[in-house]
Amino acid sequence: MNTPRPKVRLSRALGIPLTPKAVQYFERRPYPPGEHGRKRRKDSDYSTRLKEKQRLRAQYDVSESQLRAAFDRAKRTGGKTGEALIQDLESRLDATVLRAGFARTIYQARQFVVHRHVLVNGQRVDRPSYRLRPGDFVQIAARSRRLEPFVVAASGAHATAPAYLEVRTADLLARVERTPTRAEVPVVCEEQLVVEHYSR
């Protein structure tokens, strides 16, 4: 079992800042960690595809088995597998809590769901992987709203909601309007490389 690396080291290894806090460190040292981090390395096709898969996993904070299951579902849709994969991951409850601006990072969003602060259609849901459908409502439970992170969120501190969500920030309430297009999802990933990684 791998020991989880601090988010800054992981951000540098994957080439993307995973948290707002990691941005300043990443800008100062935009190369992989370690003594050989600055050296230019020619990556093999396999390592390029593997890294892209790891970047996608890290941005949604999902396990290997969860990403593989999402890929298998995406493959069965019959459409573009890469786009369907992103849409599947984006329909997760924790991802929606993040996109709605109720949390600062995907890690915080997952914690909010696990700690039962989040309602879906009026019912508490504590599974970050719960899949939402168009028409579903997500809101922060009334008792939780007075906690500091939610007071901050209600003030609009993280509000950058995409067009496929209708969000009432002050009420900490969001509705999934429709399935997002790939262009609307702010994830840094060449998903075709992920598809190739799993299809090999």
Descriptive labels:
200 residues, alpha+beta, 8% strand, globular
3D structure, described in words:
The model has no long low-confidence stretch (mean pLDDT 87). By secondary structure, this protein is of the alpha+beta class. It has 9 helices and 5 strands; from the N terminus they run H-H-H-H-H-H-H-E-E-E-H-E-E-H. Strands 2-1-3-5-4 form a 5-stranded antiparallel sheet, with helices on one face. The chain has helices spanning 7-14, 20-28, 45-60, 64-75, 81-90, 93-99, 106-114, 148-154, 191-199, and strands spanning 118-120, 123-124, 137-140, 165-168, 173-176. It has a domain at 92-178: Roll (Structural Genomics Hypothetical 15.5 Kd Protein In mrcA-pckA Intergenic Region, Chain A), CATH 3.10.290.
Layout of SSEs?
Layout: H1 7-14, H2 20-28, H3 45-60, H4 64-75, H5 81-90, H6 93-99, H7 106-114, E1 118-120, E2 123-124, E3 137-140, H8 148-154, E4 165-168, E5 173-176, H9 191-199
Antiparallel strand pairs: 1-2, 1-3, 3-5, 4-5
Please sum up the structure shown.
The protein has 200 residues and is of the alpha+beta class. The chain is built from 9 helices and 5 strands; from the N terminus they run αααααααβββαββα.
* Biggest sheet statistics: 5 strands, antiparallel
Looking at the structure, the CATH topology of the domain at 92-178 is Structural Genomics Hypothetical 15.5 Kd Protein In mrcA-pckA Intergenic Region, Chain A
Ends: how far apart?
24 Å
Kindly provide the radius of gyration, computed on alpha-carbon positions and rounded to a whole number of angstroms.
18 Å
Strand content: 5-15%
Q: SSE string, helix = H, strand = E?
A: HHHHHHHEEEHEEH
For the biggest β-sheet, the strand order reads 2-1-3-5-4
Please count the beta strands (DSSP E, at least 2 residues each). 5
CATH superfamily of the domain at 92-178: RNA-binding S4 domain
Number of helices: 9
Q: Assign a percent range to the helix content.
A: 40-55%
The first-level CATH class of the domain at 92-178 is given as Alpha Beta
Parts with pLDDT < 50 across at least 5 consecutive residues: none
Average pLDDT score: 87
What structural category characterises the helix and strand content? alpha+beta
